[in-house]
Amino acid sequence: MRLAWCILFLLGSTLPAQSEPTCNLLTINVDITALNIQLPSNISGLTLDILTALPKVQIQGTYQIAARYCEPEVKNSSRTNTLQLLVHGVTYTKDYWSGLGPPGQGYDGDKYSYVAYASKQGYPTLAIDRICNGNSSHPNGLTVIQLPANTEALYQVILQLQPSPTAGGRRFNKVIPVCHSEGATVCELLMQVHPDAPVATYVIHGFTNQFLVGGAASVAAVVFLPASIAAPTRFPGLDPTYLLTTSASGSQGVFYYGDYDKQVAAYDFANTNPVPAGELATSALSQLPAPLYKGSLLLLNGQNDQIFCAVLPTDPLIGGLGNCGTGATSTTARTQVLFPAAKFYYNQVANTGHDLDLHRTAAQTFKISHDYLASQGF
C-alpha cells in the first residue's frame, strides 16, 4: 500500500473538528539499495580519510519504517499539502519531536513539542522512526545500518509522499525534511547523493562541519555498551551491534547546556534508545560537501552545542563548553562550505546545547524554524 493511500485512510477515520493535532500511527515499507562501507573489525578511530578509502559494498533489502502522521488542528489552505517530515537523532525515536512522548503526552505537555507548534501553524507532520530505531526494522547494526542505508531509506519515504498520476489519496505538493543531529547527517548525505530529491527546503538542527573535532569524545563521554547487556529487561536479545548510553552525567553534558530542566535530562536518559554501531562509525560521511544541491536550507544550532561546536577534541569528555561562536564567523555560519551552491540561512539559540527541542528555549527553536518556512513562502 502506498503511503499516500495509507494517510487518506487514516484521515477518513477521524472527525474533521479538533482542538489539537489528530495523529495516527502507520508503517511505511521501503525497498533500499545502498553503497555501504566495508568496515574493519575495529571501528574505533575511523577518520574521514579512512572511511572514504575503504571498499564499498552494496546492500539491498525491504524494511519497515514506523511513523506518526499528525493532521494539524489549525486549517491553513496554503499549508494543507505542505508536509514537515521529522527526522530524529541518535538515542531518540519519533517521540523526540513531541517532548519525549506521543503528541499531547510529552514531558510537561506541549512545552517541548515541535509537532504541537507546527499544528498551530497549520502544518501536517510525519515523524518517523529512522530505520534501526523505535518500531522500525532492526537489521544488523554494523553491516546494514550505516549512514548510506539510512539515507536511502529516507529518500524512499520522500518519494512515496510525492504526487504522481497513480498514487491517489493524500498528496503532498511540498515535503520539508526537518532533521536533528544524526538525522541532520542523514539529510546532509541526502543532499550529496540525491541533490534533486523532491523536497521544498531543509530545516537542519544540531549540525556543523566540525563534527570531527568533538564527535569521537562525545561518543566516549556517553559510554556506549551493547543494549542487551546494559538494559536486558528493555532490550532482551537485541543484536549486540546496537549500543546504549550508560553514563547519565556524560549524556547530560553532551546533549544539554544552560537553560534546561535537569528533570527533563534525567527522564531523557532513563528512556534512551539504542544506536547502531555502523551509524556511529559512518557519521563522518556527512562532513563531505554537497556541491550539487542548489535548493535552500536553514541551519539552526544551540550556541553551546557540545557535539558539533566543541572547541577542543577532548571537550565533550572533560565537560568543556561547546561554543559555536557568533555571527558570520560562527561555526554555524561557516558550515555553508558544505553547501556551496545552496541558498544558505543560519541562526543560533543562545544558552542552549545540542538537543534544542528539549531545552527551556525550545519555543525559540520552533519559532525560528517556522519563521524561516514562512519567509520561504511555505
Give a verbal description of the structure:
- Residues 85-311 form the AB hydrolase-1 domain.
- The protein has helices at 3-12, 48-53, 114-120, 147-160, 182-193, 211-222, 227-230, 248-255, 262-270, 277-282, 315-318, 331-334, 362-375; strands at 22-37, 56-71, 82-87, 125-128, 174-180, 202-205, 224-226, 242-245, 275-276, 296-302, 343-349.
- It is of the alpha/beta class and 378 residues long.
- An 8-stranded mixed β-sheet has the order 1-2-4-3-5-6-10-11, with helices on both faces.
- It is globular, with a radius of gyration of 19 Å.
Summarize the SSE layout with pairings.
Blueprint: H1 3-12, E1 22-37, H2 48-53, E2 56-71, E3 82-87, H3 114-120, E4 125-128, H4 147-160, E5 174-180, H5 182-193, E6 202-205, H6 211-222, E7 224-226, H7 227-230, E8 242-245, H8 248-255, H9 262-270, E9 275-276, H10 277-282, E10 296-302, H11 315-318, H12 331-334, E11 343-349, H13 362-375
Parallel strand pairs: 3-4, 3-5, 5-6, 6-10, 10-11
Antiparallel strand pairs: 1-2, 2-4, 7-8, 8-9
Helix pairs in contact: 4-5, 8-9
Rg: 19 Å
The CATH architecture can be named as: 3-Layer(aba) Sandwich
Poorly predicted ranges: 12-17, 164-168
- What is the average per-residue confidence, as pLDDT, rounded to a whole number? 93
Determine the strand fraction and express it as a percent band: 15-25%
The biggest sheet, with number of strands, parallel, antiparallel or mixed sense and barrel status, is: 8 strands, mixed
Q: Please state how the strands of the largest beta sheet are arranged side by side.
A: 1-2-4-3-5-6-10-11
Report the top-level CATH class.
Alpha Beta
Instruction: For the record, give the distance between the C-alpha atoms at the N and C termini, rounded to a whole number.
Output: 28 Å
H/E topology pattern = HEHEEHEHEHEHEHEHHEHEHHEH
Keywords: Signal
Protein name: AB hydrolase-1 domain-containing protein
Pfam families: Abhydrolase_6 (PF12697)
InterPro entries: AB_hydrolase_1, AB_hydrolase_fold
